[in-house]
Amino acid sequence: MDRIRLGIVGAAGRGIAYEIPASTDDRIEVTAVCDVSPEGRHRAQEAFDAAQSFSDFHDMLWEADLDAVLIATPKEHHVPQSVAALERGLHVLCEVPAARSLEEAKELVRAVESSDGTFMLAENDVFRRAWMLVAELVADGRLGDVYYARSERITSGKEKMERSRWRRTWRVGRNGITYPTHNLGPLLRWFPGDRIDRVACSGSGHHYTDPRGEGYEQEDSVVMMAKTEQDHLIVHRQDILSDRPACGYRFELQGTGGCFESAAHSGDEHRISLQDEDADGQWQSLTAFEAAYLPEMWRELPAVASQTGRNGGDYLVFQSFVDAIESGSSPSIDVYEGLDMTLPGLVSERSIAADGEWIDVPDPREWSA
Ligand SMILES: NC(=O)c1ccc[n+]([C@@H]2O[C@H](COP(=O)([O-])OP(=O)(O)OC[C@H]3O[C@@H](n4cnc5c(N)ncnc54)[C@H](O)[C@@H]3O)[C@@H](O)[C@H]2O)c1
């Protein structure tokens, strides 16, 4: 097979995170990079050894020789750029989240279904070693009937909202769960065959202002309760604004056969308690299950991959996209799964505006023409 010719937009920002995955995959040739920053564009062109560089995405689409694009621009560009690339028949790997509104989400589904190109959401946390291990344990029935999960994303990120202003607009300039996919992505893999079909969302009020003295539209801690089609319960908290140390991601999972708790602080271990005869409910380190349950893609991970984000998650998300193009099979996070982890956040914005009312989350599979 000829090498896949890839163009990267937003190449100087998040795009650079794909330098190792793209340059170590001999199925890939980065033919073009695009970024509005002249200095960044130059840096990215050198990093990816790309033949061409562009300041305008549409110039890249029409002038470069491309089979695929990686979209690593701010959130407001994800759907317009994905749709334009899909209409050109290109394969698309797009950064998270998938869309900004239900209307954009529908537009994206229509474009994917009418295109010869494939679409994958680049949700790298789905590929984290520990979260994949938990998914394997769930799939093997070790946690029994899994019925409850709690997750948190606490990033203490006010400064970052000023460094990249699109985040001030789209992440904390809206009220609700505005960045859900890093949590809902891995977590929904622990509820196989299920999806979130309704949410209720509330917040803790406003206690901080931005450097201009303006209040954030987002409340400081926002909590979403979600029920799945199979009537399981998920509770998720997003906190970007509170003055406190960041703690990244926290998860808890409960089933009839056991439970899982992610490490609360650095230095702690992920732990699991199983109700079977051998374990008798005692806490064990999650790593004790690696020998039996670590997925193949993690066993075969090249050493260089651990230098990429999520200790290899960025490498695996990219590799999965290339595998899908090469084999012609469905990508590991297709548009429907990508929207299953995006839409609850969008609907939470409506719920919080309606004083926590439960609101249905649409199933994007039902939008098919
Ligand atoms: N999956 C992850 O772990 C992860 C991590 C960080 C960011 N992201 C996502 O990646 C995206 C970008 O985030 P970021 O932190 O790189 O943002 P950023 O603002 O730091 O950088 C974005 C880059 O895109 C360029 N750009 C902006 N508009 C453009 C346009 N119209 N055409 C071409 N280039 C353009 C900018 O010059 C910049 O180099 C966001 O959607 C974010 O959510 C994902």
Structural account:
- There is one protein chain.
- The protein has 14 helices and 15 strands.
- It is of the alpha/beta class.
- It has 2 domains: about 120 residues, NAD(P)-binding Rossmann-like Domain (Rossmann fold), CATH 3.40.50; about 200 residues, Dihydrodipicolinate Reductase, domain 2 (2-Layer Sandwich).
- β4, α4 and β5 form a beta-alpha-beta unit.
- The chain starts with a strand and ends in a 9-residue tail after the last strand.
- The chain binds nicotinamide-adenine-dinucleotide.
- The site of nicotinamide-adenine-dinucleotide has 21 residues, from loops.
Give a short overview.
This protein is an alpha/beta fold and 369 residues long. The protein contains 14 helices and 15 strands.
Shape: globular
Alpha carbon gyration radius = 21 Å
Series of secondary-structure elements, N-terminal to C-terminal: EHEHEHEHEHEHEHHHEEEEEEEHHHHHE
Return the average pLDDT rounded to an integer. Answer: 97
End-to-end Cα distance, whole Å, is 33 Å
- The CATH class name of the largest domain reads Alpha Beta
How many structural domains can be distinguished in the coordinates? 2
CATH superfamily of the largest domain: Dihydrodipicolinate Reductase, domain 2
Structural class: alpha/beta
With strands numbered from the N-terminus, the spatial order across the biggest sheet is 14-13-12-11-7-10-9-8-15
* CATH architectural group of the largest domain: 2-Layer Sandwich
Bound molecules: nicotinamide-adenine-dinucleotide
